[in-house]
Fold:
Amino acid sequence: MAKAKTAKKTTLLPKPKKGERTYTKSKLITHLAAKVADAGLGEVSKKQVAALLEELATTLKTYAVVGAPIPGLGKVVLREIPAKPARTIVSFGKEIKVAAKPKRVKVVFRFNKETKESFNK
Structure:
């Protein structure tokens, strides 16, 4: 009789300790692949998870104009910063010329209420 293949057991990452700064993209991919496998939804390769994350990033960039939500976390939106005129200020008895800044757009992530409250506990 042939032996049945055993599924490769992947371990979940432990919770980070305070001051730890080593959460990388590869750790995120490994963690998500392991979490899906532990949930009993089948094996997902790291390449599949990486492709999913890349598509998520592309979608968020595309739809940030109208507000791209991430369920359970918040939304990515664009914020317009108005133009600032050129001016001259006096500082320590010297005149300093400040150049004008054109109107620009910033990408902003707004956390939802539940996420903010989870950090305030």
Summary: The two ends are 56 Å apart (CA to CA). The helical segments are 25-38, 46-63, 113-119.
